[in-house]
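Budget justification aside, the reviewers requested a transparent look at the raw inputs and outputs of the sequence design task funded under Objective 1. We therefore reproduce one unedited record. The lines immediately below are the structure tokens for a 125-residue chain.
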């Protein structure tokens, strides 16, 4: 399984951005996929996750500003980010795990089996 993130760039506060995560070798029909981020000196934190049945979950810090989606035909996970703030500065990672039930999707990093290498998002004020 390989997850490859892309789309991280430098933007001004208030701007929008879409991150992508291309998955290869991940053939589960039921799964959880998530976006996490890690700022320098801080722990990795969950941002959003999605189950294969379409159920989504967001952290309070991004709720209403970020939207997670996936395109099964393209085997790609997306994170649409709007209303970006300087505190959104971080390296963003996607993660995946086989999961039958939507309620099992979590923001615990240890729960996920597969991780990408990350993409950097820089928001300037």
């Amino acid at each position: 399984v390989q997850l490859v993130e892309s789309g991280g760039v430098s933007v001004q506060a208030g701007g929008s951005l879409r991150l992508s995560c291309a998955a290869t070798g991940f053939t589960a029909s039921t799964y959880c996929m998530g976006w996490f981020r890690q700022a320098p000196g801080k722990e990795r934190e969950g941002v959003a996750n999605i189950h294969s049945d379409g159920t989504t979950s967001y952290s309070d810090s991004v709720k209403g500003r970020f939207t997670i989606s996936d395109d099964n035909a393209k085997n790609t996970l997306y994170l649409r980010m709007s209303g970006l703030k300087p505190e959104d500065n971080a390296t963003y990672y996607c993660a995946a795990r086989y999961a039958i039930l939507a309620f099992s999707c979590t923001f615990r990093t240890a729960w996920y089996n597969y991780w990408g290498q990350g993409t950097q998002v820089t928001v300037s004020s």
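The mean pLDDT is 96. DSSP finds no helices and eleven strands in the chain. Computational costs for records of this kind are itemized in the attached budget.
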